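Deliverable D5.2: sample structural annotation.
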Amino acid sequence: MRYPGGKNHVYQALINLIPEHDRWVEAFAGSAAVSRHLARRHAEAWVLELDQEQAARLRRELPGHRVLHADAFRFLREHAPSWGPETVVFVDPPYPLRDRRDGRRRYRHELTDAQHEELAELLHATRARVLVCGHPWGLYPRLYRSWHRHELAVVLRSGGPGVECVWTNYADPWPLHDYRYWGADKRVRQDLRRQVARHLARFGDMNRHVRTAVLRALTDAYSLGGDRRLDLDRQAASPAPARRRAPCTRAS
């Protein structure tokens, strides 16, 4: 779906920043590109869109999601204070008017600078893990200066290079919620799928007792419960500097 400011051109890079979670919330959904492609492994999935026509369209197109025609500010004020790290919130609001190169209004419901400030206060206050998109210049670098900044290289419609930014209130998204898009390019993703298929085939050929013993050993060694091996893995995957540049993708 084409939608002004939609993330169809960078959803793979965004999904590679999303940690495992039980509750998913996408605010200011627009085309809801990330919700469309993210694996439905969560118990709850909320999609918030203030435009009534767009919300009705998303209800038809996103079965299994709770699509609300709702004000994201009101929803976040009511629910975000009770959320913890098991919740991931993806926020892609209309970018500040003053930071747009052409200064054009594109949405029925734009945000004022004061509303962007209020949104930042709400997101800073929650214990949920948050991703928020914005321009690499202007208001957002100031509002989210203490967060981790990820730069997504894109090709603009004009054919020139561009950068979109994502700020997260967490350093390391490991383990990812969805590994289907992991890797810098299609070749790396295909190699991962082949490795997974090869290991699954080996497990399938094992005696069931051997298979269960191996699975238990792997679970004991690498479970998410926080044992020493997992701590060592986390150290090995320690976060890079706050600014990260993702592979170049083509903008719609």
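Annotation notes: Confidence is low (pLDDT under 50) at residues 226-242, 246-252. The domain at 11-178+239-250 is CATH 3.40.50.150 (Rossmann fold).
The annotation will be released with the project's public dataset once the embargo ends.
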